[in-house]
Amino acid sequence: MHQNQLQSPWKLRQAIKSQLVPIISLVLVVLITFGMAISFDFVNWDDPWYVIHNPLVKSWHPDNLQKITTQVVTRNYAPLTVFSFLLDHTLYGLWAGGYHLTNILLHAVNAVLVFLLVTRFTKNRLIGWATAAVFAIHPVQVETVVWISSRKGLLSATFILASLWYWLRKDRTLEQNTSGFLCFIGALLSKALAVIVPAIVFCFDYGVAKVPFREAVKRQIFPGCCALILLVITMLAQTSELGGVRDHFGMSKLEILSIDTVIMSKYVQMLLWPDARSVLYDPPTSEIGGKVVISLFCWMTAAILFIRMGKRQPLILFAGCTFLLLLLPVLNLFPITTLMNDRYLYLPCIPFFALVFSALVHILESIKQHVIVPMLRGKQSSGYLVPTVFGVIILALLSRYSLLTERYLYVWKDGLSLWQYTSQQVPQLPVVQIQLANSYHSQGEHARAVEIIKQAIQDTSPDELDRQRMQQKIEDWQRLK
């Protein structure tokens, strides 16, 4: 990294000004792709608890502000996220479009930060723009951007990317260290996912910047302690098991890790070739021994290749480690109520596609040098060949992803649309049928809601907790007939 690169935090503004054309294009891509979400409503999937029925977002009284900084909302300690909803409520009341607009703008900011980061590391604006553009419109991003309750992921990502902008450099000034730390604290107070940031920075310092091991560890002691405190608070907040699936709760860590290898392979498939998306998934947890063996072999082979390549190109190994670290908090090493989700890929897709596009450029350059140039027999070859071919491939990829994103986007227009669609994807999940029934109930169709619950009790094999919830809903709703 060059010594003259961005020696003060204020030069982030200079970096943006020097790249205005690609940055403006990325913002337009986000606005065009997700702009229609401004007309969408809230959905009955955490939105009532974060916004509609949340007294914390409806008052600027000092007592209420104090509660925002100390209280847990829907099993998450995320005071900055709740404060952002307070700002939205002040501006928009309960007009859902305003909350969607904030999410879209945060996603646009994140796309710009992705472009700046990847461009700085690869020293290639084409790779940086392609990575940021795919990050901006990939179908797996719909859940994070359009689901209002996923604000915590968007806001945390903004602070995480900003902290990495300041911290991921060989020679950090005091200003950069301070700015990076403040952004890191902002990320922690937005979502617990940020606990992995010190590990990412350690990998960069030790593996890329070649900082001695003890010094690299020493640099992360204070950020690591802050992350540990937030992690403990978050784990203590996980006192409810409602809202997801629980079949995996009784499994050993070894069983969970085995399932994780298969799920991570599925994540790679979802990134490269996304098919039908869903707000909930029901990945198999039994009779998958063959898939586990194949996945383990593939991941071990990938690890060996990354380690070998990392000896020559440390950034390759760093990108691979970052991908794994960003997934680590959602691998159920401490229980959460879903095994896999689209939103878990919001940040991991960045190092993934940066690697894919860097490899693509390298392959195209090799073809040019070893095939095209010899064929020309000394004639002048166009310097635009590789960028042109790369651009055509990226545009084709973006066109496909954009079409899939547009199709899935409309699923999130309201709660009924969301759960009608999801009940077609994973009809066997009791929680899906409960939410579908809730959607009909909220529209006054109480008999239809009761019918769905009764059918779900017969067809979905609910556990005792879900069965009790279902029976209670039947009793309550039948009184409304």
- State the helicity in percent bands: 55-70%
Number-wise, the strands total 0
Distance between the termini: 69 Å
Structural Rg: 24 Å
The major pleated sheet works out as:
none
Low-confidence stretches: 1-10
What is the number of helices? 22
Order of helices and strands: HHHHHHHHHHHHHHHHHHHHHH
Percentage of residues in DSSP E strands: under 5%
Structural class: mainly alpha
Question: How is the secondary structure organized here?
Answer:
Layout: H1 11-18, H2 20-34, H3 47-52, H4 62-70, H5 79-92, H6 96-122, H7 125-137, H8 142-146, H9 151-167, H10 174-188, H11 197-208, H12 213-219, H13 221-237, H14 253-272, H15 289-312, H16 314-327, H17 349-376, H18 385-409, H19 415-425, H20 430-442, H21 446-459, H22 464-478
Helix pairs in contact: 2-6, 2-7, 4-5, 5-6, 6-7, 6-9, 7-17, 7-18, 9-10, 10-13, 11-12, 11-16, 14-15, 15-16, 16-17, 17-18, 19-20, 20-21, 21-22
Question: Can you describe what's shown?
Answer:
The protein has helices at 11-18, 20-34, 47-52, 62-70, 79-92, 96-122, 125-137, 142-146, 151-167, 174-188, 197-208, 213-219, 221-237, 253-272, 289-312, 314-327, 349-376, 385-409, 415-425, 430-442, 446-459, 464-478. The protein starts with 10 loop residues before the first helix and ends with a helix. Helix 2 packs parallel to helix 7 (125-137). The protein is mainly alpha-helical.
List keywords for this structure.
single chain, 481 residues, mainly alpha, 0% strand, disordered N terminus
